Amino acid sequence: MFISFTKVNNAASGGIKLLGDPPKSRVPDEVEVNNAATSGDALPSDVPKNAISEDYITNKRALELLSDVETLTEDRVEDVLREFRKDFKDGLLEINCWPCKPSSYKISKAALNAYTRIMAKKYPTFCVNCVCPGPVKTETSFHSGTRTPEEGAEGLVKLALLPKGGPSGLFFTEKGVSTF
């Protein structure tokens, strides 16, 4: 089954790294997210309560809102995104302690990870996870990665083939479960 909801677009990190943040006049009112889920049953009890990395979110209020999985809601994520967008347009990212460039990429990753945990909790019969394939040699990374596309796909395929009751609400890297 496929779950789709609109909030965050988390694509083309190579292009974002090259170009930095978009001009303030081009910041959309809404950003989109596609996050797929496969069947499964349980939300593991070991989902970290405060799992957002301070490397990604340095704004203390945003970090608090996105980190506590027990109180995490779609409205809280939307509040953080609205606050970020306002500060971005007003040129207040640094003053209000938002992440450095590429700030749009970093906040979209944090929001995507938060939505993953929300969806895992909301749909306990699905396995809803985030996965980072690692540094893959693709056009998006300008072929600067160290892994082949086949190697990068291994973790994605493993997660797509999880059995019922597999882990959900987690973030995976090529090395296994990681913190958000």
If you had to describe this structure to a student in words, what would you say it looks like?
The structure is a single chain. The chain has 180 residues and is an alpha+beta fold. The chain has a single domain (6-177), classed as NAD(P)-binding Rossmann-like Domain (Rossmann fold, 3-Layer(aba) Sandwich). It is 35% helix and 9% strand. It has helices spanning 13-19, 60-67, 74-89, 103-122, 149-160, and strands at residues 4-5, 33-34, 38-39, 126-127, 130-131, 171-173, 176-178. The strands form three sheets. It has a three-stranded mixed beta sheet. Helix 5 (149-160) links the parallel strand 5 (130-131) and strand 6. Helix 3 packs antiparallel against helix 4. The longest helix is centred in the middle third of the chain and has 20 residues, at 103-122. It is flat and about 45 Å long. The relative contact order is 0.21. The model is unreliable at 1-20 and 26-53 (pLDDT under 50). InterPro entries: NAD(P)-bd_dom_sf. Belongs to the short-chain dehydrogenases/reductases (SDR) family. Keywords: NADP, Oxidoreductase.
N- to C-terminal separation?
Answer: 24 Å
Give start-end ranges of low-pLDDT stretches. Answer: 1-20, 26-53
Assign the CATH class.
Answer: Alpha Beta
- Mean pLDDT, to the nearest integer, reads 74
Count of DSSP H/I helices: 5
CATH fold topology: Rossmann fold
Q: Which superfamily, in CATH terms, is the homologous superfamily?
A: NAD(P)-binding Rossmann-like Domain
Number of domains: 1
Shape: flat
Overall number of strands: 7
Protein name: (+)-neomenthol dehydrogenase
GO molecular function: oxidoreductase activity
InterPro entries: NAD(P)-bd_dom_sf
Organism: Tripterygium wilfordii
